[in-house]
Amino acid sequence: MGRWSNQTTGNDFVLLGLFHHNQAPKLIFAVIFLVFLMALVSNAVMMILIWLDSRLHTPMYFLLSQLSFMDLLYSSTFFPKIAIDFLSGKNTISFIDCGIQLFLFTTLVGAECLLLAVMSYDRYVAICHPLHYSILMRPAVCGFMVVGSWLGALLNALIHVLYTLNLSYCASREIHHFFCEIPALLKLVCGDTFLYENGLFVSAVVFLLIPISAIMASYGKILTTVLGLGSTMGIKKALVTCSSHMIVVSVFYGTAIMKYFLPKAYHTAEQDEVVSVFYTIVTPMLNPLIYSLRNQEVAGALKKVLQR
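The structure assignment produced for this chain is given below.
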């Protein structure tokens, strides 16, 4: 590939993607297609169930429907491009399309980080302050927190995307990734990106470490409250209610932290691709499955719809 001497406007990036140097590209594509299909169907079903069943018209399930909506958009941001590249044999992406993909990804991952923290707060209020739940989690408050998650993520994405797209790219146009992500793009910049990488780290702290700290604090308080009650039934119910959320949190935040907080020396471009596959394609499939399999109310709503 040639090298650039200035901005890349009007030029294409080359996404080396998941199939670069892979000995079984058809198998990899088939697996990714099945995962995407499951994510699409399971999240759509989750949203429909919550909409149809009046018993699920509660703050907890409203937030869960928002998570499914985010995951639906999230997986749809990546797979169509992966499929086009695989089926056409081309793996280029225009500068504008790269910016759009980067904006969608950054917005959705940021919104999901904040939403998961809001969901943990909902469980904290429900278990630790049940008498005040209808006030603390009334529709206006619930809607405000969801809108706040979206707006905070949109603002963060806008700042990062505008800055990233205005950098001077003079390295090879080959991105060692299957989508446009800031760390992969920074490797192509012909200049010192140290200050911006520090800013990216601060952003990661705000959208990863602070929410996960709030989540851990919420569940620590829940555990203390439940143990203090001394009720075996209460402990069991709380664990069933919260364990699904903790599994989702562990999977989502765990892979994201591996990607953004481990020093560069501890991960390669290939390892980054594998981790990215997990939190961009696999996690959106797992979320509704985890909630539905471990939640009797969701399972009951599904059974009710199927019986109709």
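Interim note for the steering committee: The radius of gyration is 21 Å. The beta strands are 12-15, 92-94, 174-175.
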